[in-house]
């Protein structure tokens, strides 16, 4: 079954919308959630929206953990490189997911919790 350009676009947007969402309080989680519930109900779009949502929830939790770690004895000296690595991982997965969606492929984020089945 061939995917329509609209399905590919919605799936790619599910991965890239959190970039805008990071400027809102928890928009990085809300935008993929909105696509999951309000976007096209095709299996392809739903799978990409769920993967993006799982990734953003996981990365938000990891970032919160790093923030709490920075407040402890460990401090910013150790947390700063970890935060940069997390940022690189987030961007890498978002771009790779969007590119895979544009090609009509399924993409799985690395190092995430699968909370939304």
UniProtKB/TrEMBL annotation:
The keyword Cell division does not apply. It comes from Thermus thermophilus (strain ATCC BAA-163 / DSM 7039 / HB27). Keywords: Membrane, Transmembrane, Transmembrane helix. It is a multi-pass membrane protein. The keyword Transmembrane helix applies. InterPro entries: MamF_MmsF (IPR019109). It is found in: Membrane. It holds the Pfam family MamF_MmsF. Signal peptide: none annotated. The chain crosses the membrane at residues 20-38, 59-92. This is DUF4870 domain-containing protein.
């Amino acid at each position: 079954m061939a995917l329509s350009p609209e399905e590919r676009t919605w799936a790619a947007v599910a991965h890239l919308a959190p970039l805008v969402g990071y400027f809102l309080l928890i928009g990085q989680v809300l935008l993929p959630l909105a696509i999951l519930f309000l976007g096209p109900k095709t299996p392809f779009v739903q799978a990409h929206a769920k993967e993006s949502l799982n990734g953003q929830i996981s990365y938000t939790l990891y970032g919160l953990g790093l923030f709490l770690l920075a407040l402890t004895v460990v401090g910013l000296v150790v947390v700063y490189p970890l935060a940069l690595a997390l940022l690189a991982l987030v961007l890498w997965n978002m771009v790779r997911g969007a590119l895979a969606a544009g090609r009509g492929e399924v993409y799985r984020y690395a190092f995430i919790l699968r909370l939304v089945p």
